[in-house]
Fold this sequence. Notes:
Elements: H1 9-35, H2 37-44, H3 46-67, H4 69-83, H5 87-114, H6 116-123, H7 128-136, H8 142-154, H9 159-185, H10 190-228, H11 246-260, H12 265-271, H13 274-280, H14 285-295, H15 299-325, H16 333-356, H17 358-366, H18 372-378, H19 381-397, H20 401-426, H21 428-452, H22 460-463, H23 465-492, H24 498-524, H25 529-533, H26 538-548
Helix pairs in contact: 1-9, 1-15, 2-3, 2-9, 3-5, 3-7, 3-10, 3-12, 3-14, 4-5, 4-8, 4-11, 5-7, 5-8, 6-7, 7-10, 8-10, 9-10, 12-20, 13-14, 13-20, 14-21, 15-16, 15-19, 16-18, 16-19, 16-23, 17-24, 18-21, 19-20, 19-21, 20-21, 23-24
Amino acid sequence: MQQDFGLPRSSARTIVKGAFVLGAAAIVSKLLGTLQKIPLQNVAGDSVFGIYNAVYPLYTLLLFLATAGFPVAVSRFVAEERAFGSPEGARRVLRMALALSVGTGLVGFGLLYFGAGTMAFWIGNSQTEAALRSVSFALLFVPWLATLRGYFQGLGDMAPTGVSQVIEQLVRVAVMVALLFAFVRAGASDATIAAGATFGSAAGAFAGLAVMAGYWRSYAKRESRAASGGSPAFAGHTRDVRRVRYRTFIAYALPICLGSIVVPMLTLADTFTLPRLLMRGGLDEAGAMAQFGLYNHGLPLIQLVAMVVSSVSVALVPVLSEARARGALAEARGSVESSIRLVWLIGLAASAGIAVTAVPLSVMFYEDAAGYEAMVVLSGTAVFSVVQIVSGTILQGLGAERATAIHLLLAAAAKVGLNVWLVPRFGIEGAAAAAVAAYALAAGLNMLRLRRFGLLRLTWRDFALKPLLATAIMAVATAAVAYALNAAMAYALPELSYRLGQTIVALASVFAGAVVFAAALFATGALGASELAAVPKVGAKLLPVLRKWRIVSN
Length: 554
């Protein structure tokens, strides 16, 4: 059997190592980016938290539009130029990409900085104006950063990208927290505090760029020594360095940029509708932002669940690529179906767990239980968002990126319509219900498309009866543990602080629920060892642990 898809062993090892570096860096970066929202709310309060969450999706949209396609395009064309022995061609790709990305970044900066007042009016809250201007400075640095990352990826060196991502997030969080404390102690307004928080993105981008500049300087010195010493740094053919033209580069990068902006559309739907709708209900700007902040309490937890299941989607990509290359997609159906069922089960457990423990989780993360009702409703997005992520990744692996984008756009449109209908009647709980429906729509459309590919033959029974029974058992057990712990601590530890007590309740009940759910899955037959084993990479790692705990029999 041919190994490593026909690649030389050294090349295969390089790819695996690079994928590991990028994967580890992405996990650390996402974890930091998600958890940094908690101290933001704890230090500055819900109004600042609301401003931050209103502004950031808009910045993300412009950032993706300006830079998302450049690392991929630069990586591809640099790798091609080097493979054909054209070092000057590779550098020309870099210069061309920098001209384009820095240019679009300047346009994005201008739109965000000078158009902040207009965008704040569109959002319906003038307090967002300063934060929009503050975060716009990141667009001066990110294009350089993204393009240099793409260049080193084209060289096959993933370390600069991974290290710069982690440093970027660390500095971003550090600067954000430092400015939060400084402005809060100075008695600054909510708008100023939120602007300080968003400025962390600019500081982080500058730090990441400084790291990449260091890697570039070291690389340039090595290249200079190799050239002066007559070392054949590029073996192979020589070719016209003008082959990759602006039109070719833009034609490759632009669809990626346009496709990426679909991702923040669902959160943008809230940014441009929810504050206005809340104000129409009688709230002033500060009150609307505070409610918007409460609505966003549950999002970091949902994002953590999505981060956990992303490993399943990443593991499926090479399986699908290999099957597609051999013209044997039907062989991948078992892995696809098992992966979809696994993330559905994980999502069900997460949704039920967050709903049952919403009060202790709210107190643990945000000091009090305000807005827990919205968190209970919003927890329903966990199950549908993870299915949407994995099914969307599968469709992209099948070359159906356009379908995924269209489904997300339809979901965003549904979110806007449902917000307009539900928020005046039910407030932020209505917005949470609209989010659940929107993610359910996107996930459902993805699943229907997978059925057309012949990769999904599961019926509603595979998603309902036994999985719901296992989830119900877990929910009852989790609620029982939470109730028992609350009663025990009230009797034995009456002087224990409320937040510490609820933290103990949250952690213990979540752990107990996870163990009970794992046991209930196999006891009810909702999941079998053979199904778990069919999930690429993930199943092989989970089965030994479950057997060690005697949840699964040998």
